[in-house]
C-alpha cells in the first residue's frame, strides 16, 4: 500500500529561441541558461534529495513541453503554457477546437509522462488525476479542462480583492479614447498579412517621419526610412470595436502591443534584408495557422514599404521569389526591385534587432519611441482607421 509521495515542482520561464540581448539586458544579475540542460541538472539534485515525483511547470510551448517529457529522465509530468494550447479528450464544451488529447502522453522507455496545458486567460481550469502503484510508479493519468462559465461560482474573497485593485488602477490610469475604426482589426498574422499588422508597421514609418520633421532634419527624399518590419509574435490580439461603436481606447492599444519594445532605426544591405525575409519564411506552417492556440512560430515578418512573394514549395533559403522596396530618396514614393548591394534604412523593434526569433543578422540604432507609443500616436492622428490588406505579402504553394 502506498503511504506517501514526496512531490516537487519547478518552473521553466522562457523558450531558448527567444534568448537575445534585448531580453537579457533587462534581467540584471539573473543568468539565463538552456531549459533542457537546466532541468536535467535540477532533476539530479531533486532525486538525490529523495523526491519521488517531479513536475516541470513550463512556459516554453507545447512542443518544448513534449521534448522535456521525452528527453529528461526523472521528469514525471509537465504542466505547460506559452503556446495557449487547448487540449481535450472528452466532450467538447464550447467552440474551441482541441489541438490534442488531455493529457498528451509521452513515452520515455516504459514510463508514461503526461503533458497538459489549459489554453489561456483563465477560461479553463485544468484537472489532472494521477494514479500510482505501490512502487510509486505512475500507472495512469486522466483529466481535462473545466470550462469556467456561469455555472462555476466565483470566489467572493477573491472578487473583493479584484475590485479593490481595480479601484487602485482606475485612480492611476484613466482609459482614454484615442481613435476610432470602421473595420475589424485582425491580429491573427502568424502566416498571413493582416490589416492590423499593416497599421502597426505603417505607424513605425509615421512616428519616425514625425520625429524628423520636429527636429527639422533636411532630407533628400520624403523620409530616411521607407520600410518597417516587425514579428507577428509581438501582436497579441485583434480588435473588434463593433461593441463600442468603433471607439478605440488606449487599453486596446496596450493589449495589442503589450511589450513596450523600443523601436530602432537600422541601416542594412539588401542582402541582409533578403536573408531576414528568407528567415521569415523558413518555418512557415499554414496548416497550423488555423489553430491560433497552437505553438506556431512567431517570427513571421509583417511589413510596411515592401512587397514580397514567397514560394513555400521551395527549400528553406530559396523561398523568396521577389521583393520590391519602397524608395525613400524619391519625391514620389514608388516600389523598385531590391538591390542586394544597396543600403536600406528600416524601422524595426529592438527585440528583432537584438536577435529575437533568431533574427541574428541585424544590428540597431535606438530611437526614443516604443512600438506601443508609435501605434497610439498613429491612431490618434488618423481617424477613423480603415486599414486593409494590400498584397504586401504573397504566399504561393503552401
Automatic annotation (TrEMBL):
This is 5'-nucleotidase. Pfam families: 5_nucleotid_C. It comes from Aphis craccivora. GO terms for biological process: AMP catabolic process. InterPro entries: 5'-Nucleotdase_C, 5'-Nucleotdase_C_sf, 5_nucleotidase/apyrase, Metallo-depent_PP-like. The keyword Nucleotide-binding applies. Residues 177-363 form the 5'-Nucleotidase C-terminal domain. GO terms for molecular function: 5'-nucleotidase activity; nucleotide binding. The keyword Repressor does not apply. It catalyses: a ribonucleoside 5'-phosphate + H2O = a ribonucleoside + phosphate. Keywords: Hydrolase, Nucleotide-binding. One of its GO terms (cellular component) is plasma membrane.
